[in-house]
C-alpha cells in the first residue's frame, strides 16, 4: 500500500514544512553510529602484531604450569585395586556370587607419610554412571523429602519405581546401584596389634546437598515411620533408614548415599568415601608404614569388566593429584613461546615487504 | 477479486440504493447510479430510511472503498500466523524436534524446555508480524477516514463522507488538488472542454500531468451535471490491474452506446490538478481499483549466499544424521556388550525387560538428533534476518548515498539480498535516464538541408558541464536575459564568481543551488534551467524573424506563404511543428490553469458536425460520412463548432485572433519582445516526455512560443505575427511501433489542413514523399534529404538523439476521406487501438521533410568515473538500450565504457545464418587476436562518420579485450537456442557489451541468459518502464528514481537517485554486507559444530547413550542468549576494510565476486577447525578431571564456560573492527552466562531433572581447577587459528588485508605530516599536469617520483627515498591515483595493477607506457579530435576533453578539501567524491 502512504505523506507532510524555511529533508543524520564511523580498534593479524600475544601466553602459562606441576607432585596418592580379578588377589574369592558376605584383606605399604587431611576414595572403572537412562533414573523431589513423591515416585525411576506394589525409596537406578562395599583401614604398627584408622563418615558430601537438596521425608518420630509405606531398592540389603546408625547421617541424608547420587562424569571415577582428619601438627595423618585394608566385598563389578579401587590421597589448593594440567600448561606455554619465536623470525624476514607491499592484484 | 457471485444478487430486496450486477459469462461489470430507484420500487422518499439501513445490511457483500490491507484479525491472528510460520521448513523441523522430546523413551530434555527456543523464535516472528499488521491497520484507518464529497439522495446535494463509505455507483465530486478516492468515470468537469488533468505521481511517479476527458455525451451538457438525472448504465471490464487500459461503454436511456476509454477514467491515488472541480461515478472501489490491484507486496528473493548457506545447512543435516547414526550403532554395540553382564548401570525397560540393542540404537538415534539439534542452528535464520535489517538500515542511513538535489536517499526495497550486492559480476544498464540524466537539451538542428550548429548553445552547455564537473553551479538564476545575451557576459559572470568564492563556498553554493533549482522545477518536469535556456543560433534566429516579419506583412494577402522562399517557409513550418506537434500543456506556475475561453456562441454539436462534413466532404461522400458522424460522437466532433466557424473564412479567424488579443488576461503586446520575455517566466510547459519539452523550449528561444494549448486549439505567439491560433483537429500520439507522433491542424494563415509529424529519423525518412529526380525542385529535395541524412548521422555520432520533423499538406478531400475512416476507428469498441494505429499510418505518408533536431541527453554526473571504478572492481558492464547504434556507441564512449583505442566488434546481421557466421568469425577473431583481422569487415553496416570507432588494432599484445556491439535484430538471432552459447562465449571475452535497439523483452532475455548460463550474479539497473522486466529478472534489480516515473523503482530491489551511487552501494556496502554476512554464517556453522562436537566426543565416554554433560538449559539457550549478541554486532558493524580504501581500490570487490569469504573449502576448513577446537575443549577438561570425583554436570559446566570463552575469542580473531559495542556485547555475554548460571543453580534444589544443578556453579567458582581449565582450553583451542592467521597475514596477505593495512597505516600518520604530504601531492600533481599533457598515468606517476627531490632534498631517488617516505608516499600516490583516475580512461585500469611504487613493478609498468603514449600517434586520434572539436566540450562526443578537464582539476581539489576537513580521515572520505567531470 506504499502509494497510499506516499499520498498521505505528500498531503500531510509536505506543505507544512515548507514555510518553516528549512524543508524537512530526508538527509540521514550525520552521527558516528549511523554513518558507521564509530571509533574502533582495528587489529590486523600479522606476525608482527600477534607475536607479543604468543610470548605473553608463553610467559604466563609456563610458570602456572610449573606451579601446578609442583603442587600436583607434592600430593601423596595411593591406589589399591581390590577387584580381585587376578587369581593372586586376596579378593579373588569374592568374585563368585556364592560367597556372601565376602571379606578380604589387602596389605599395602605407604612409602612416605601422608601429611594433612587424607581423603579416602573408592574408585570404579568402566562404570557408566553417565549413561543417559541411568542419569535420569532418579526423583529429586523424593530425595528432597517431598512426601507425595516419596509414595509416588517420578516415572523416570522406572523400572525401579515400585517393587511389589510399594514405592521404592529411594527410587531409580542410581540409588539401586549404590556402592555398598565397606572399607576399613588399619595401620600395622611396629607392635603386633594393628591400629584402626579413624575414618570420618561425615563431611564428604557437598554442604548444599546434605542440607538443602537431600532431606528425609517429614513426619514420624523415627526414620522408619517416615519411610513407612516404602520399600527398599531391589539391590539393597537394608532399607534406606538403616544406612547408618547416626540419625544425622541416615535416610536420604546419608552422605555415602548423597555422594553416590552425584553421578560421575566419566566411566572411570572415584568418589569420596571417608575423611582421615589430621590429628595433630606433629604427627603425620598416615605415617609411612604397612597398612591393610579390610573389605566387605559386596559390590559386583566383575560381571561388566569394571574395577574397584581404594584411593588414599592428600589434597592441595587445586584439589587432588593431577599431573595433566601442569604438564599441559607447560607444554602449551612452550609451544606458544616457540610459535612466537617462529613469528618473530617471519616478521623479521618479511617485515619490509609486508610493510611496503601494497595491493597488487 | 470476484467476491460476489452473480447468484447472490438475485434475491436482493427492492429499495436498495446501490446496485451492481455482474454477468459471469459476460466478463463485464455493470454499474448504475445508486441514486436511481430500482425499476418497480416503492416510493423513493418512503424507502429512504429503509434504504439507508439496507445499505448497511448489504455492505458486507459489496466491494466498498474500504481499504483493508491487514492480514489478521484479533481472532485469526494466532492460527493464521502460526500457519504461515509453519510454511518455513526450518520451523517445522524445530517443532518436530521439540515434540520428539515428549516421547519418554527418547527425550533428552524436559519437554517444556525444549519447546522454549522454538516458541521464542515463533513469538518473535509473530510479534514482528503483529506489529507490521498493526501499522498497516493504522494507515488503513487513516486512509479510510479521508473525506470527500459524495452526492446524497436524501439531501440532494454533495455531502462529506469518508472514503470508506464510497460505493460503486456513487457520484463523487472532487476539487482541485484532491486525491481521487476510487476509480471514477469522469462525467463532468468544470473545464469547458470537459477536460481534467491528473497527476499520477502516486501511481507511477510521473510528475507530468495527464489529461482525462469527460465521457462523450456528457461534455456537451449545457447546465451543470445533475447526478439525479443520470440514468445511463455503464458496462465495463471487470477489475484488473492494467493501468493503461480501460474499456467499456455507457448505455444511455435511449439505447445509444458510447465507448469508454482510459481517458475517461480517474484512477485512485492520483491527484486532480488544474481543474476546479470534477464529478464522476465510481466504477471500481476499494480493493478493486487499479491502483490497489497493482500493488503487490515486497518481493522475496533469496540471495546467493543464502542459497549456499542452505546447501551447507543440508551438509549439517547430513553431518547430524551421520553423528546420530554413528552414535546409534555405537550404542547398539555397547548395549549388546553389557546386555548379559548384569551391569549395574544398565537401566532396563520400565517393564523390567532388557532393552534389545536394536531398540536401544533406534532410541539413541532419535535422542541424538534432539541432543545435537544445535547443529542446525535455530537462531541462524533469525540472526540473519536481524543482521540484514540492520544492514539495510545502515545503507539507508548512509549520507553518501543521499542525493540532495532530489532529497532522496537510497531505498532498499528488498530486505534480504543485501549481500548479493557484494557479489555482482555483471551489470546490465539501461542508457537513457540511467547513464544519462534524461534531461534533454536542444543542441542543434538542420532545416531544409542547412545545418545550424548552435555554437553558442554548445558553449552554454559546455559551461553547464564544466560547472557540474567542478561542482560550482553558480549560474545566476533568474538572469535569463543575461543568459540570452552574449557569451562574453556569461564568461565574465562566471569569472567573477570564480574569483569571489572560495572552493568550499562554491561547493555549498552549488548544493543549495541545485536544491533550489529542483525545488523550483518540482512541479514541472523537464524544466531545469539547463533544459529551458537555449541560446539560439543567430543565423536561424534571423531567418525565423524574417519569416515572422514577412508573414505579418503578407498575411492578409491571398497566399501568404507563397511570399516566402521555400527555405523560409520550411523554417517557419519547422518551428510551428516544434511548437505544436506535441502534447505539452501550458500552465502558469501559481494557480491551476484558469482557462480563458472565448466562445462566440454556444455550439450545438449535431448541427456543426453536419456543417463540418458538408463543408469538407465532396457531395458524393456526404451521406455516408454524415451517418457515421451522427452515430459517433467522436472527439473531433465536439470541437467542430469552432472549426466550422473558423473555416467560414480566414477573416473570421483573424477576427477571433484580434478578439482574443483584446482579452485582458491574454493581452500581450504582439510586438513586444521585452514584454514577452517578462511573460516567459510565467509559462510552464508540462510535457510527457523530455524530448518534447526540449523542443518546445527550443522553439521558444526562437520567439516561437507555445502560449496555450486547449483541447481543440493551440496558440503560438510570434513577435510580429502575434498570436496564431491553430485549430487542432487530431493528435495521433506517440507509440513505440510507429516511433512518431503527428498532429493534424488547420493552419490559421493558409487555412490549409496540415499534418506535422515528428519522429525517429529511420521511420520518418522512409515516409517521405518520393521525389522525382526530373525537375529541379525534386532534385533539390533529394539533395536536402541526403544532406539531412548526413547531418543526422553526424548528430548520432555526437551522441545526440535525433528527431525528424516533417509536414504534409492535406487537401480537404483527402482529409475528409481519412477522417471518415478515422472516426470509424475511434468509435469502434473492439479493436480500437489497432484501427487507430492503421488510421495513423494512413495519414503519415508522403511527408515533406522540414528538418531534423539533435537533442542531447547529458551524461549523469560521475558516470564515467563510476563505470571506471566498477570496471576496476571486476564488474562487466553491459549496456542494453533501445537507442540506435551510433548514439549508443557514442554514449558508451562518453561514459568510458568503450575506449577509443580498443577494438569494437560490431555484430549486425540480417538473418539467422549471417548472425551465426558472424559470431563464428568474431569468435575466431577473438581467439586469435593479435592478428590484424578487423572484425569490421564483418559487414558492419555503419558507414558514415563512424571510422574512429572502427577497430584499429594496436600492435601491442597487451591490448585490452575488445568490446562487442550488437543490434537488436542480431541480438534476437543470437538469443536463439542454437546461437546463445556462441554469443555468450563471445560476450564473455569482451570487455563490455553494448546492445542497441533492444526491446524490453530482449533486455530481460539477455539478463536471463547470462544469469542462467554463466551462473553469474547479475544486476540490472534502469529507470523506465522498459527496464522493468530486466530488473525483475536480474539477481539484483536497481531502479533509478529519476524523472521517468516509478515503475522501475517499484520493480526494483534497490532504488538509487543516481547512477553514480551504484559505486558506493556495490563497492562499499555490497562488499561490507557480503563480508559481514559470510563471516557471520561461517561463524554460526563453526559455533554450532564446535558445540555439538563437545557433545559428540562425550558419547565415546557414556556408551553412546546420547547423554549430555552440558546442562539442558545451557544447551538450549546457549545459541539464543549467551553467544548471540556479539556475533550480531559483528555481523552488523564489522568492517573488514574501511570505506575509503574500498573506494580507492575497487579491485577489492573481487573478493566478493569470487566468494572468497565463503567458499565450500572455507566452510569445510571452518568445520575442521571447529572439530579441532571441540576436541581441545573436550579433552582438556576430560584429562583434567580424569579419575576424579567430579560429577557429570559439575564437569559439564566448565566445558560450557570454556565453549563460551572459545566462541568469544574466536569471534575476536574474526572481528576486524572493534567498537565499544563489540566490547560491551562480549562482556555482556559472559556476564549473562554467569548470572544466569548462578541464578539458575541457586533457584531450586529439587528441580530441573535430570541435571539438578543446585549450587554447581557456585561450587565451581570456588574451585581453582575451574579457572585453570577455563584459561588453558580456549587458548589452546585458538592458538593454531591465531598462528595461521598471523602467518597468512604476513606471508600471503589477501588484497583485503593489504587494503586494511594501508588504511591503518594512514590513520597512524600524524595530521600535520599528512597535510604536508597532501600539499606535496598537490604540488606534484600540478607539476605533472604542467608537464604531461599526453602521457599515461604511469609516466606521470613516475614523474612525481623524479620530481620529489625538489621538495625533499634528502631524497636522491631510488629505494632510500621510498623507504623514508613510506607513509607519505603511500598517501600521495593514492591521492594521485584517485585524482588522476577520473580523467583517465585506460589509466584507470592500469593504475592498480601496474603502478604500485615497487620499483620492480614499475619496470613492468614502464613497458606499458609505450603503447599508451603511442596512442596519440595513432591515426584515429585525429579523428577523435575532430569529433571533440565538433561537439566542443560537450562531454558526449569527447572524452579527451574530459580527460584534460579532469587532469586540470586536481590542481584545486586537494587544497579545497584540506580547507573543508582538517582530518586525514575526512580527506580520505572526501577523496572519491571529487573529480566529477
From TrEMBL, chain A:
Instruction: Tell me which stretches of the chain form a coiled coil.
Output: none
Q: Where in the cell is it found?
A: Apical cell membrane; Cytoplasmic vesicle, Secretory vesicle membrane; Golgi apparatus; Membrane
Would you name any one GO CC term? early endosome membrane
Instruction: Tell me the GO BP annotations in alphabetical order.
Output: positive regulation of neuron projection development; positive regulation of phospholipid translocation; positive regulation of protein exit from endoplasmic reticulum; protein localization to endosome; xenobiotic transmembrane transport
**Keywords noted in UniProt:** Cell membrane, Cytoplasmic vesicle, Disulfide bond, Glycoprotein, Golgi apparatus, Lipid transport, Membrane, Transmembrane, Transmembrane helix, Transport
Record GO terms (molecular function): aminophospholipid flippase activity; structural molecule activity
Which Pfam families does the annotation name? CDC50
Ranges annotated as spanning the membrane = 44-70, 324-346
The domain of life for this entry's organism is Eukaryota
What name does UniProt use for this protein? Cell cycle control protein
Q: Which organism is it from?
A: Microcebus murinus
TrEMBL record, chain B:
> Which residues hold Mg(2+)?
430, 432, 1023, 1027
State the compartments where it is located. Answer: Cell membrane; Endoplasmic reticulum membrane; Membrane
Q: Which is an annotated Pfam family here?
A: PhoLip_ATPase_C
Q: Membrane topology type, per the record?
A: Multi-pass membrane protein
Where is the P-type ATPase C-terminal domain positioned along the sequence?
1049-1294
Q: Which GO terms describe its cellular component?
A: endoplasmic reticulum membrane; phospholipid-translocating ATPase complex; plasma membrane
Q: Where is the active site?
A: 430 (4-aspartylphosphate intermediate)
A Gene Ontology BP annotation from the UniProt entry: positive regulation of membrane tubulation
GO MF terms held by the record: ATP binding; ATP hydrolysis activity; glycosylceramide flippase activity; magnesium ion binding; phosphatidylcholine flippase activity
Q: Which cofactor does it need?
A: Mg(2+)
Task: List compositional bias (Basic and acidic residues) regions by residue number.
Answer: 1-13
Give the EC class as a word. Answer: translocase
The record lists ATP as bound by: 430-432, 692, 734, 758, 801, 881-883, 997, 1003, 1026-1027
Q: Mainly resides where?
A: membrane
Q: Cite the residue spans of the region called Disordered.
A: 1-54, 466-534, 1329-1360
Renumbered to this chain, the Polar residues biased-composition regions fall at 483-502, 1330-1350
Q: What does this protein do?
A: Catalytic component of P4-ATPase flippase complex, which catalyzes the hydrolysis of ATP coupled to the transport of phosphatidylcholine (PC) from the outer to the inner leaflet of the plasma membrane. Initiates inward plasma membrane bending and recruitment of Bin/amphiphysin/Rvs (BAR) domain-containing proteins involved in membrane tubulation and cell trafficking. Facilitates ITGB1/beta1 integrin endocytosis, delaying cell adhesion and cell spreading on extracellular matrix. Has low flippase activity toward glucosylceramide (GlcCer).
Q: How does it assemble?
A: Component of a P4-ATPase flippase complex which consists of a catalytic alpha subunit ATP10A and an accessory beta subunit TMEM30A.
> Member of which family?
Belongs to the cation transport ATPase (P-type) (TC 3.A.3) family. Type IV subfamily.
Q: What is this protein called?
A: Phospholipid-transporting ATPase
The encoding gene: ATP10A
